[in-house]
Amino acid sequence: MPILACYALLVMAQQGQQPRSFADKAEEARGYIPYRALTWDDFHTNDVDGTYLADTEAFIHYDFRAKYVQSGSSYVASVTSIEIRSGFDATKSWRKSKFNVDPDVLLRHEQGHLDINETYARKLRKTKLSEWPTGSGPTAASAEHALEDRIRTLFAQAIANCQAEQNQYDDETKHGQVASSQQTWLAKIKHDFDAAK
């Protein structure tokens, strides 16, 4: 039950291209499963040495489209659409073949990791187009690069915050082994998850 890893992938769509989505199946073919309730069948077996019984890895991916306008001798690029996806990385997540704890309790703990990740994705999805950063520069290309850098920085901060919460979740619940802390955390996770809709 190590900490959940979150990461982002940026693809800036060029004019005329559609952002990818899970309908594109290519992402799923690479082992990225859209957010949903987990089952133990989602995890591959890996009897590695160590004290952890399972590891849930998650992702946050995004694609955006942008436009630029010329303003005097400079250009300003802004987001026109953005798609944010999150879910379970089946290629990196694993479980041991045998548990010395209740598997349902352990699975609820692992689902908590995925729910925290989805909560951060939902918060990002709630950002209005006008609230995303803009990029500026002396050319259209430099404005687009500036925009890309600012969005990457924004996602990196959100992911760092997500990771910090994942760490706190594991530390305070001792990876799901302290029942009272686990129940407190599951209530908090549900509250935050519902509030981020």
**Helix fraction?**
25-40%
Strand content: 15-25%
The pLDDT mean sits at 88
Largest sheet: 5 strands, mixed
Alpha-carbon Rg, integer = 19 Å
Q: What sort of overall outline do the alpha carbons produce when their principal axes are compared? A: elongated
Helices, by number, come to 4
Given as residue ranges, the uncertain stretches (5+ residues, pLDDT < 50) are 1-20
* Estimated structural class: alpha/beta
Q: Give the end-to-end Cα distance, rounded to a whole number of Å.
A: 27 Å
User: In total, how many beta strands?
Assistant: 8
Order of helices and strands: EHEEEEEEHEHH
In words, what does this structure look like?
It is built from 4 helices and 8 strands; from the N terminus they run βαββββββαβαα. 31% of the residues are buried. A hairpin with a 2-residue loop joins strand 5 and strand 6 (74-89). It has helices spanning 26-29, 103-125, 140-173, 179-195; strands at residues 10-13, 32-34, 44-45, 54-55, 58-71, 74-89, 94-95, 135-137. Helices cover 40% and strands 23% of the residues. With 197 residues, the protein is α/β, with parallel strands linked by helices.
Feature tags:
5-stranded mixed β-sheet, elongated, 3-stranded mixed β-sheet, disordered N terminus, 197 residues, 4 helices, alpha/beta
Helix and strand arrangement:
Blueprint: E1 10-13, H1 26-29, E2 32-34, E3 44-45, E4 54-55, E5 58-71, E6 74-89, E7 94-95, H2 103-125, E8 135-137, H3 140-173, H4 179-195
Gist of the model:
The protein is α/β, with parallel strands linked by helices and 197 residues long. The chain has helices at residues 26-29, 103-125, 140-173, 179-195, and strands at 10-13, 32-34, 44-45, 54-55, 58-71, 74-89, 94-95, 135-137.
